[in-house]
Amino acid sequence: MAKVTTATTKVGAQPKPSDREDVGQEAWTLLQRIVYSQRPRWMAVIREYDLVPPHWFALQALDEPMPMGELAKHLACDNSNVTWITDRLEERDLVRRQPAPHDRRVRLLVLTDKGRKLREEIGRRLNEPPEAIASLSRDDQRALRDALRRAVELLGD
Predict the structure, then answer these.
(1) Which of 35, 65, 125, 139 is most solvent-facing, going by the fewest CB within 10 Å?
(2) Residue 142: which domain range?
(3) Distant-in-sequence, close-in-space partners of 65: CB < 8 Å, separation ≥ 6
(4) Same domain, 72 and 149
(5) pTM value?
């Protein structure tokens, strides 16, 4: 009688790096697919408020007063683009420019109350999960949330 051998994995053994990378790559690809599938909904919501993506990104970035140059770095754009973005948002009383206390030549962008309220309203709408997430079981939603929380913690923001 021939001896049958089976491959076994020791309890607690780490998977080969290539296996981990494949699973990580697949998870990332799937997450991107879900996020990108929501782009039309996301665009429709911000357009309802007469915003374009750079406006929304700026509103999200302004938790605290921020120099215009820093916002340009955050948005990965030129200072002239931030001036255009700021002009549009300031016209609508969503942000205001104010001199920095440490250097009056530096202009800080500050979210107004109206801007904060608008950001919260849009955020509530965009935070509604897409059907692909909402239709998962509570256990699956919880597992997904927990895994994503751990990943966000690793970002170190």
Answers:
(1) 139
(2) 129-157
(3) 98, 100, 108, 109, 110
(4) no
(5) 0.76
